Amino acid sequence: xxxxxxxxxxxxxxxxxQFQGEVNRLLDHWVGSGAPxxxxxxxxxxxxxxxxxxxxxxxxxxxxTSSLELTVAEGNQLTLKGERRKxxxxxxxxxxxxxxxGEFKRTVALxxxxxxxxxxxxxxxxxxxxxxxxxxxxRPRKINIKAE
Length: 148
Hints:
single chain, alpha+beta
């Protein structure tokens, strides 16, 4: 009896199925344990421009102002540094911990130069709100046109 077309490739199918099973097993191990496959940028931020200002919001639940540092460098680089301490359950045992702990540093390139002396930053309900004014050199200027 002559083998049909699909039986001719069956020897390849078995190792591929074994490989797929191993990959699934590894993914189940890592994802099932709560370990991230890749670390997203922390903290997540929103950046938008409104008039002569740029606004930044950063999610920082559970942190207070004493554990945060905010700096502006090179005219358009905002850096947020801080630390989230690991909570210790008094009489419990960890089963899952998905919220990151430890030190973090996030630098955001702003769309234009800002005035580092004109910054308003406040932390409300775990969200850091930062408002930075455009630097004078980044503001549009009206140019008078001369007639000849």
